[in-house]
Design a protein that fits this description.
By secondary structure, the chain is an alpha+beta fold. The chain contains five helices and six strands, in the order ααβαββαβαββ. The strands form two sheets. It has a four-stranded antiparallel beta sheet with strand order 2-3-1-4. Strands 5-6 form a two-stranded antiparallel sheet. It is elongated, with a radius of gyration of 37 Å. It starts with a helix and ends with a strand. The relative contact order is 0.08. Keywords: Coiled coil.
């Protein structure tokens, strides 16, 4: 085989190899594009799933919020029934009963803080509001909207501080964990109570007196438990 022929044969082989490489490259590119499309489809599916999960999460949050509101309304109704049971004695004035119900409803979102120092160098309400938020943060609670005001006339002692929370169920949340303040460094002397009507305070005093009588009579392990915000004598077994 002469030299030109050998060169042509070699060139043909090189061209064949190049063509094979191009074909292989085309297949590889096609496979890569196919993989990309598959990944895009998977991403789209995952995106759809994530979107549906977000919708479900939002709906779950709404349901939890609605349940919380419903629970608060049920607790209010139970409290109203208890009011009627404890106040509607034979011959009782119905108007007084309804007045008591309305009074309790108006106080349902209130809690009262005791022993919070008063500051005169700064705007009082701003300072009191920030202090209440700080106290609630210490017991693991946060509320977006709180209004506060001092009760009574100024004196040498700090006046009670009344705070209005977003819902009545928030009040129960605070009362349930208020004892945690006893283990804090800055707020261990702060006391928290619900905003009771005159009749509620009288009923509580009677319950305390009954507890003392039963203790003096020899009954042990008795304590006062609030059931639907009504003080009730219970027993530890």
């Amino acid at each position: 085989m002469d030299a030109p022929t050998e060169i042509n044969v070699t060139l043909d082989k090189i061209l064949d190899t190049v063509n094979e490489l191009k074909t292989t490259q085309g297949k590889i590119i096609s496979s890569i594009n196919s993989c990309r499309e598959s990944i895009k489809m998977q991403d789209k599916k995952y995106g759809t799933i994530e979107s549906k999960l977000d919708i479900l999460s939002n709906k779950l949050t709404e349901v939890i919020s609605e349940n919380k509101t419903l629970r608060a309304k049920i607790e209010q109704l139970e409290a109203q029934i208890k009011i009627v049971e404890t106040t509607a004695t034979p011959g009782a004035n119905v108007e007084l009963v309804y007045s008591e119900i309305m009074d309790r409803q108006s106080r349902a979102r209130n809690i009262i803080f005791f022993n919070i120092s008063e500051f005169t160098s700064l705007p009082g309400q701003l300072t009191d509001t920030s202090t209440v938020h700080e106290i609630l943060n210490c017991i693991g609670l946060q509320f977006n909207s709180i209004t506060v005001r001092r009760l009574g006339k100024q004196s040498n002692k700090p006046r009670p501080l009344l705070a209005t929370l977003p819902t009545s169920s928030d009040v129960f949340d605070v009362l349930r964990v208020k004892r945690k303040l006893l283990s804090t460094a800055n707020f261990k002397d702060i006391r928290i109570a619900s905003d009771r009507t005159t009749q509620q305070r009288q009923y509580f005093s009677k319950t305390i007196a009954q507890l003392k009588l039963r203790n003096d009579a020899g009954e042990d392990n008795l304590y006062i438990k609030f059931i639907n915000n009504v003080p009730t004598i219970s027993k530890n077994y």
